[in-house]
Design a protein that fits this description.
By secondary structure, the protein is of the alpha/beta class. It contains eleven helices and nine strands. Helix 2 packs across helix 3.
Amino acid sequence: MELFYRKTGEGTPFVIIHGLYGSSDNWLTIGKKLGKRHTVYMLDQRNHGQSPHDDVNSFDSMRDDLVGFLNQQGIEKTILLGHSMGGKTAMYFAADYPERVERLIVADIAPVDYMQLNEKSQYYLHRNILLAMIDINFTQVENREDVAYYLSEKVDDTRVVQFLLKNVVKDKNTKLFKWRLNPEALYNYLDEIVSGVNKSWLSAQIPITSYPVKFIKGANSNYIQESDIQVIKEIYPDANIVALPDAGHWLHAEQPQLFLQAITQYW
């Protein structure tokens, strides 16, 4: 699959992979700052942003998309930054292609199985979001406020609703609003998105020491727990782990200056 991407700056390659529901748009500010020292490539993963839609959204497919992109751009080796689902894509790729990774930076996700079957789990959170997105009848939508109203009936986090609205676009042919991403495919692969790229997936490569690894977590986020840090250290014994104060899961948007410092400071 040929991925859509944005490119800025000059220097050594630096590839950024967004998370679930995200796109390259979310990384423009960070990308421009990093572009002072690097050639920065901000990707849209499959079924997101302006990249093609497909029925498959497995980590195998996302890893292979990244391989294809690097080959297409003639990038032999790169610094790799992935956030959330993109962080799992980055870890999975790096484990299989260590020779192509200069450094690995993982933002607010751990190589663990998040499939907990309770109402507060990440699985049910995303399941509810995707079902709410799928259920919207765009023939009855006149503006983005209508979409916000429909979403808010089932998603009780205003920040999440506002973030999802960035994926609402108008179809040039039908003149109707639609989702820019592909919620049906994401829903069908939600089990793997939530549970995949855990310790068992990486067991053949453990311990991973071929490239420097840094994890950056939001201090207010629950995606990297103390128990997860132990798993991280088992997989990446030399990993550096940094917590950003007053930041949640979208730490790059909430604390952009601290996030940049965490990326560029001494490992």
